[in-house]
């Protein structure tokens, strides 16, 4: 199909490729340019002529095509009820994975859809994505907003594409250590404030959670103008996390968390039992959802699928959700081998819990514990029904 661009610009070739993939997924033949198909394929050109970027126009109309073909899931807005999340008024648990470098890959023009498809097909519903960092030496990547004049447009395109694949996104604004020497990504406080405002203004609040800082107690984050960074009005937002096993409100000068909060278990002994239980303790204290959004890293720190399954399963029962943290997730690459096996186990564990039991009364079932078990937890509903999870050693 050459119409309406005989010279085939790059964006048009990519649009056609992705459109053909959508038709293939739907089991329908790729149409010619007659009739309704001509109108559909001309629409991106109309928007571009009106001033929209080719990337934004492509994302918009590919999403429309997916809906027309019955493929693109419509993400219902996230909500909060007490210590848990809801979607469409129903209980929902965050089944998240670390994809720190994914926005950077998209901004640089890489095709991230194989990654989105893998994450979705494995059973995840949320991605934890970083938005500004210089961490190539840490195996993550480099994304300096000032180096990309189209950053805001690409960010919106990225979030729309993730939603098209059925994935919510937790965006982290400030991400701790820079490269050696603690290089400054933002020139001054005004630039930092502008970055937080950009995330607030660009990210759709229905499908995006905002996290102010990763490990805010790290000395590399002391330059952040905390008192001037205010809670967004329309987003589900978190002031962020502290380092492993610390309660996030201890991050100076936090007096209390925002709409939700986060907890980390990296390198902790008996970490699988702490993912859900310790996050629940913070939630009990503040009455808000708390997720364990960075945990022991797979496969270099732990390569046991049962640990992944049990940690996520307990978290789905006890707290608002959990995150599968992985070596390839740091740099946003496809999982393979045992890393993939453990990712599947994590999502399976989280999805195995009937979420009606989230609202039940908590019990630590010490009488059921054996030498091969770290912990046994349960929640019991008012009608007497109980759901039990075991966390194995």
- How does the helix and strand content classify structurally? alpha/beta
Bin the strand percentage: 15-25%
Q: What is the total number of structural domains?
A: 3
* CATH fold label of the largest domain: TIM Barrel
What's the pLDDT, averaged over the residues? 88
Distance between the first and last residues' Cα:
58 Å
Which CATH architecture of the largest domain would you pick?
Alpha-Beta Barrel
User: At the fourth CATH level, what is the homologous superfamily of the largest domain?
Assistant: Glycosidases
Q: Identify the strand order in the major beta sheet.
A: 10-9-8-5-4-13-12-11
Which CATH top level class of the largest domain fits? Alpha Beta
Number of strands: 16
**Helix and strand sequence:** HHHEEEEHHEEEHEHEEEHEHEHHEEE
* Model regions low in confidence, pLDDT < 50 over at least 5 residues: 178-182
- Tell me the helix content: 25-40%
Total number of helical segments? 11
Gyration radius over CA? 22 Å
């Amino acid at each position: 199909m050459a119409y309406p661009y005989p010279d085939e610009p790059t964006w048009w070739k990519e649009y056609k490729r992705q459109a053909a993939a959508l038709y293939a997924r739907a089991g329908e033949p790729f149409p010619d340019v007659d009739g309704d198909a001509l109108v559909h394929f001309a629409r991106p050109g109309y928007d571009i002529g009106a001033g929209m970027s080719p990337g934004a126009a492509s994302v918009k109309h590919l999403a429309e095509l997916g809906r027309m073909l019955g493929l693109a899931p419509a993400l219902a807005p996230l909500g909060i009820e007490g210590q848990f999340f809801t979607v469409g008024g129903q209980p929902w648990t965050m089944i998240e994975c670390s994809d720190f470098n994914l926005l950077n890959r998209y901004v640089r023009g890489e095709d991230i859809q194989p990654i989105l498809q893998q994450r979705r097909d494995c059973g995840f519903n949320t991605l934890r994505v970083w938005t500004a960092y210089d961490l190539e030496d840490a195996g993550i990547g480099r994304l300096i907003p000032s180096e990309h004049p189209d950053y805001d447009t690409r960010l919106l395109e990225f979030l729309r594409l993730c939603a098209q694949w059925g994935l919510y996104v937790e965006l982290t604004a400030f991400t701790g250590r820079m490269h050696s020497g603690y290089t400054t990504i933002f020139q001054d406080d005004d630039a930092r404030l502008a970055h937080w405002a950009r995330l607030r203004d660009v990210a759709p609040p229905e499908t995006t959670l905002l996290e102010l800082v990763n490990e805010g107690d790290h000395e590399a984050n002391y330059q952040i103008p905390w008192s001037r960074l205010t809670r967004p009005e329309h987003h589900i937002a978190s002031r962020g996390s502290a380092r492993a096993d610390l309660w996030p409100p201890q991050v100076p000068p936090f007096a209390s968390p925002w709409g939700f909060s986060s907890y980390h278990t990296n390198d902790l002994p008996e970490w699988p039992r702490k993912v859900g239980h310790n996050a629940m303790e913070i939630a009990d204290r503040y009455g808000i959802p708390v997720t364990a959004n960075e945990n022991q890293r797979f496969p270099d720190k732990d390569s046991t699928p049962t640990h992944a399954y049990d940690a996520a399963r307990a978290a789905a029962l006890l707290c608002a959700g959990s995150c599968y943290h992985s070596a390839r997730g740091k740099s946003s690459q496809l999982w393979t081998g045992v890393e993939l096996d453990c990712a599947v186990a994590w999502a399976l564990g989280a999805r195995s819990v009937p979420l009606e039991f989230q609202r039940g009364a908590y019990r630590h079932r010490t009488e059921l514990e054996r030498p091969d078990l770290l912990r046994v937890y349960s929640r019991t509903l008012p009608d007497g029904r109980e759901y039990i999870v075991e966390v194995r050693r």
